[in-house]
Amino acid sequence: MSLSGYTDILQGPLAQYLQISEKIGGDVAEQSKLVSAAFEAQLLYLKLAAHTSKPPLSETTTLLSPTSQQITAVQEYREKHRTSPFFMHLSAISESVTALAWVTVSPAPAPFVKEMNDAGQYYTNRVLKDWKEKDKNHVDWVKAWVQTLTDLQAFVKQHHTTGLVWAGTGPSTAPPPPPFGSLPPPPAIDALSLAAGDAGLDRSALFAEINCGQNVTKNLKRVTADMQTHKNTALRQGPAPFKPVVARKPISTVLTAKPPVFTRDGKKWLIEYQKNKTDLVVEDAEMNNVVYLFKCENSTVQVRGKINSITMDSCKKTSIVFDNLVSSMEFINCQSVQMQVMGKVPTVSIDKTDGCQVYLSNESLDVEIISSKSSEMNILLPKGDDYVEHAVPEQYKTRITPNKTLHTEIVENKG
Prior knowledge:
Blueprint: H1 2-11, H2 13-24, H3 26-51, H4 57-80, H5 87-96, H6 109-119, H7 121-131, H8 136-159, H9 196-210, E1 261-265, E2 268-272, E3 280-282, E4 290-294, E5 300-307, E6 309-313, E7 319-325, E8 328-332, E9 335-341, E10 347-351, E11 354-359, E12 368-372, E13 375-383, E14 386-391, E15 396-400, E16 406-410
Parallel strand pairs: 2-4, 3-5, 4-6, 5-7, 6-8, 7-9, 8-10, 9-11, 10-12, 11-13
Antiparallel strand pairs: 1-2, 13-14, 15-16
Helix pairs in contact: 1-2, 1-3, 1-8, 2-3, 2-8, 3-4, 4-5, 5-7, 6-8, 7-8
């Protein structure tokens, strides 16, 4: 039944996702082939689990290698095609395909699948926003992929609630030979020779001692101070106490350090993997250009002139200073970042970001600030030569009105 349920996913929403990916074509179709291979690799792993017993931990990594390699290939395809017109599609798959690592999660793999599905939600929403009015295939593409992971979550919850079930009895591989010099197995209980008469005498003596009343403790030795471990530290030495086996973490792709990038590719300026750089300047940019920062740390970037938009993705302790934007400034998956606008910015979007300081100019007081799943957001408004800080609300209270609608209001922090 477990294999049948997984096969239904492959033949149902996943097949639909692959079919629509072929219709869209380009990088979407190429990446979908890697996704298909990842699911097929996991199917083989589930078949192994259905017919064999759980292998030793040393063998699990080898058995999971095909699935892990395909997940890595999906993510690397996105990294190598950042200038693709379908970059949001590639990112949606790259961020959520790690749901296939549920086989290594215990004791709650189903919530892990949902978490990975939610991780790609930002990008799937961007696909819907950008293509909803242009091509319905992209809307169906999003629905098919989200449904694939939703069905995968339901499958895991039903058949592998607390972790992957190894239902077979046979070994997954040939068992290793016993170590040299190992002790022989203990003798069976039947082999123990104990005379019935002697056993009866022993038991009678035991019961006689137990039934002697208060005198049962008179022969016990008194524990003196030098025999107490809390007073005699020397007695504490010995083997380490037993420690329970900690549940293994899900498979994660270890990204090696990558060289910094500062280049212009057509209309897009790519600034990636910059660390401890405070003199980065984008000059001679045109109005239709965009600037994309990715995984920069402890750096400052200045953008001169008027451009279309700026996106800061997965950056830490990074600042951006710019003159004017036609569209928006976006923060995604960032930590402790800052922006300062010298002229005009219509929209500031903050998503999945912890710690964001937004310095506005007098020309940008009509800006729209959109935030979601973020914390520690502060808007600093100009006042003379200084700034006044205002916190963006993070906590809300929702009530049901008599008309059965929802009324939401900000909860003020009294502290």
